[in-house]
Amino acid sequence: MPSDHDHKREEIAEEVAPLFEGGPIWRRPAAKIFVIWAIMTAIGVVIGVMLPVHIFPKMVSPQGKDALDTVVFFTVLAAPVAAFVYAIGLYSLLAWRKMSGKSDTPPPDGPPHRGSGLAEALWVGASVVLVIVLLIWGMGFLASETAPQNNVVQVNVTGQQWFWTYSYPGTGVTSNKLVLPVNREIQFNITSMDVTHGFWPVELGDQIDANPGFITHITVEPNQLGNFDVRCSQLCGLYHAYMYSHGQVVTSSQFATWLQDQGASVSSVTSYALGKN
Amino acid sequence: MSVTEHDMHVPLEGGSHETPQERHRMEHIALWLFIGGDAFFCVLEIFFWFYLRSLNTNGMWRGTNCSKANACTDGLGNPLTHPIAKAAAVNTLLIAVIMLASAAVIWFAEVQAREGATRKTTTPLIGLALLLSLGAIAYQIIQFQILPFTTIDGTYASTFEFFMGSNLAHFGLVAFIGTGLFLRSRKGKFENGSWYHLHLSRLWWVWIALSTTVLAIVSVFFA
Amino acid sequence: MTIAAPRLEDTKLGPKAGGLYRHQSFFVALPFGIFTAFIGWLVSHALLQNSNWGSDMVVTVTFVSWVIGFNAGIGTFNAPFRWLRGKDQTHDDHLYAAGVGQGWKRYWKYCTDHKVVGTQYLVLVMTLFFVGGTLAMMIRTQLITPHSQFLSPQTYNAIVTVHGMVMIIATIIMVSGPFANFILPIMLGAKDMAFPRLNAMSLWVVVSAVPPILSTFVLGGTDSGWTTYAPLSVQSPPAQDAFSITIITFVVSVTVAGINTIVTTFTMRTKGMSMSRLPIFVWGSIVAAAVGLYAMPAFLMAHSALITDRVVGTSFYAPAQGGAGWLYENVFWIMGHPEVYVILLPAVGAILEVASTFSRKPLFGYKVMIGGIIGVGVLSIMVWAHHMFTTGWAPSLADPFMLTTELISIPTGIIFLCIIGTIWRGSIWTKLPMYFLYLFLWNFIIGGVTGIYLSDVPADQYFHGNMFVTAHFHYTLLGGAMIGATGAVCYWFPKMTGRMLNERVGKWAFWFIAIGIQITYYGQFWEGFEGMPRRVANYAPLFETANQVSTTGAYILMTGWLILLYNIIHSWHKGEIASANPWHAKSLEWHTLTPVPLENFLVDPVVTSDPYGYGEPGSVPGAPAPEPAVVGASSNQGGSH
């Protein structure tokens, strides 16, 4: 007596079998779909690996690099998934298009298949696996942005319409240019004088809003020397587009010199640089 | 809800294609959906209250009575410490009680109508419920005048007065419905088993009384 | 010999039928609204101008007066006040209100016929897209060069804000307005919506909501984006009050329309139409309506508190006085995220109908798709703080919201399963609506995948507030939802207008749109990768090339939309007359006449299966239904069986 199970097998066989029939291997539908899929995936992977790296600015911290790596990883992961959908879409137009738009009568109906429990289960299952992979990736990076350790250098950031001010507590130095020592953990303490601004040191790969009435914090450890930009990422009124600062990551001694040039005393610079403020 | 046999014999309201039962079911579902939306609005009001109270930014939940002091901060931007007196609980609670009473009266009117009462009974009852709701409106407006603070006096004051304003808007709707029920009752529209609009109105009315009470409890006991 | 039964719409009404409605129309409501606004301005100006926050109070009172005046003039309040007085409308009044005997004039009036309302919505939506699109082209033109002086920063910010909000309004109503009103009741076999007067009301209330937001340009301009974050928006010019009035008015319309759609679906299905035989479009529409009912109160709350902060000095959003910008942001996004699914789900429902009809195959995985739609709706209320990853609010909640946001990709992914399952081994018929199905497929994958990038908190720490976000949501809202809506327009055009949309011109429009979308928004992904922020009137020279690419794409896209607009207008007037079922489809709307009679069906249809029986023997035939013969009052002929 044919069981439900056999019925399902039959149904699946009916749906899937024709894809594997029809002459030499390269002529069969499954092979053609596979080829389209493979080409599209390859294009996607190549784009993912080559393009962002060239377009992103040069990151100066691990977090910046994390953001870039995430983009690459997600693109490479998304390529086969997107290609799967696109390949079937494209193949449907090549092989299953039975009547062009010029005709006013439809083609004869297709097979009355309303669904396949197996396909649905596989699809949802694969989505769940993908989501778990993405979550582990994301939570992993998030966890690595741990609470600051010892010897953290503090920088206070104040946003206002329409410029940023940085102060280095204990040294008495305030500046509109953000200078940071390399290979030190920097904790930013950010607030605003008026409306919400977005403190975004672009190549440091992290950002947080500057909220009036509250102080927010992010911790970054720049590990490359070089210039970076600070832009405002939260619309803050008339000159939001111009709310920009230069930033620079320098060596520790250059940093100390710079602080003294801004008027800090030698002793305050020493204790500040040791993270004692 | 149950629909009595009486409904079956009521002529269709001009132009309506559905039977009365179908119409009633549709209006019933619509009303519950609307109450649902309003309930979420009420939840958000309460969220505002507790969020701002827990933040107490700059100490300004009940920090300073700017209106009384004619200023909010000293010359250096620090909040002046003239803590706000709480609004008198009796007013807030009494308004809620009045609305609860008017909801009870309209409920009673509905029960009477279901049992076959004539307009001679239902109309005065509805009139009483309407009067009570108008009284609540008047009282709510008066409360604005007698508060020991104004909207500029920090977030407790702001949220408290927002609750009051929201009450006023809702009471206004109730009063409109109450007026309509009163005028329609005088024409005998709720006799002979056609009490359904009275029923729907009662549901809304009771909801408003309940939400007023909840907001009153929050604003009095969590000041 | 058959005798055609007299049609309801040919009834001759008495000279007093309709009462006040006889004297009301858009041409009365407009001047009356302006007049009332003027009175409101006069009174508030005299009383309040010199008080604290006087100009905000005056603007608020003026626009509230406008909304009340316009709606009084069009007839929104007629029925409530008649109810109040106990003078109910008569049968003739109902027929007048449904447009009987008024010809084309009923399209300018408060008309309770859902088909008229649907058509009015279609015209309104196209107008709104035209306005929003013009603003978009001004933005893209400004951004051709880094230091362009085409627009001042103030004007630019104002344009960005109004472009965003007008588009949000337009996309919320683009499918639920025209099609959930015109088509959905017919799909259910019903005679009209559950609450025809509320249906007309929801349309005219949106119409009254438009002038306030357009007035913002002359009231100082809103400069805080469509999201109008506080505390910036608390400090904005009086234009912000007008903007908030638009929102509050719009919320009323969406709430009423949502209730109407849900109640209609639950209570007015024809005999045999069980919930499991509902077309998927209906499922998309009712879940969207339910999500909208949840979201709209939050919109109302956020903006009511904003108005009181501006007009009476409350301090909900002012930290110096105890408030917080985070409060606004939270309540706003509690609305803002579910709201994009209010936009998306009806469009997805519509494009799935197209997929089935033009593959000549049943919808694949109907039950799973319903689960997916409901899953999206439920999850959509749990993800809002992914818009706040970088605000500094509750950092410990970043992980949970990343989780819920990535989870939502699972039910959303089911949409792709159903589309490709439907076209799989189908008999594909590449008519114009089907073109848009394929474009939807292409675009929505890109939009969805880039959303995943943003849901990853470390990536979002780079991308927040940057043009990548803009590109992502344009791909999903324009490339996905709006293309789905365009497919819906092409699909249901013959039924709604009685004419066929020109395919050849339509294909030209399609290719310009398809290519324009890719170039425009790839340019913006590029800008985002490079680190360009959003909502900037000028930018650093390094972003110039990417911007030029994007603007070029925008002009191509604009051309496509204009060709389509021309096509719609021309075909509406002069297109080939359409038969009742040109697509040989199976859902009920195709089994009544075109033009659709006043109460949709001459004979009450009886349904014995869902509308996806392609290839199944004995299913509802896909051929056009003939006009039935003599109709007895109790005929149960079962429609087109």
Can you offer a commentary on this structure?
The complex is a heterotrimer of chains A (277), B (223) and C (641). By secondary structure, chain A is of the alpha+beta class. Chain A contains six helices and eleven strands. Chain A has two domains: 121 residues, no CATH class; 121 residues, Cupredoxins -  blue copper proteins (Immunoglobulin-like). In chain A, helix 2 runs antiparallel to helix 3, helix 3 runs antiparallel to helix 4 and helix 5 packs antiparallel against helix 6. The longest helix of chain A is centred in the N-terminal third of the chain and has 34 residues. The mean pLDDT of chain A is 89. Chain B has 223 residues and is mainly alpha-helical. Chain B has a single domain, classed as Four Helix Bundle (Hemerythrin (Met), subunit A), CATH 1.20.120.80. Chain B starts with 19 loop residues before the first helix and ends with a helix. The longest helix of chain C has 35 residues. Chain C is mainly α and 641 residues long. The C terminus of chain C is likely disordered. Chain C has two domains: 82 residues, no CATH class; 464 residues, Up-down Bundle (Cytochrome C Oxidase, Chain A). Chains A and C meet through helix 3, strand 1, helix 4 and strand 10 of A and helix 6, helix 11, helix 12, helix 13 and helix 14 of C.
In short:
The complex is a heterotrimer of chains A (277), B (223) and C (641). Chain A folds into 2 domains: 121 residues, no CATH class; 121 residues, Cupredoxins -  blue copper proteins (Immunoglobulin-like), CATH 2.60.40.420.
Global Rg of chain B: 22 Å
Beta-strand content of chain B? under 5%
**What string, H for helix and E for strand, traces the elements of chain B in order?**
HHHHHH
Oligomer: heterotrimer
CATH superfamily of chain B: Cytochrome c oxidase, subunit III, four-helix bundle
CATH class of chain B: Mainly Alpha
In the predicted model, the low-confidence regions of chain B spanning at least 5 consecutive residues are: 1-15
Number of helices of chain A: 6
- Please bin the fraction of helical residues of chain A: 40-55%
Shape of chain B: elongated
Order of helices and strands of chain A: HHHEHEEEEEEEEEEHH
Described by strand count, sense and barrel closure, the largest sheet of chain A is: 5 strands, mixed
The averaged pLDDT of chain B comes out at 88
Structurally, the number of domains of chain B stands at: 1
Structural class of chain B: mainly alpha
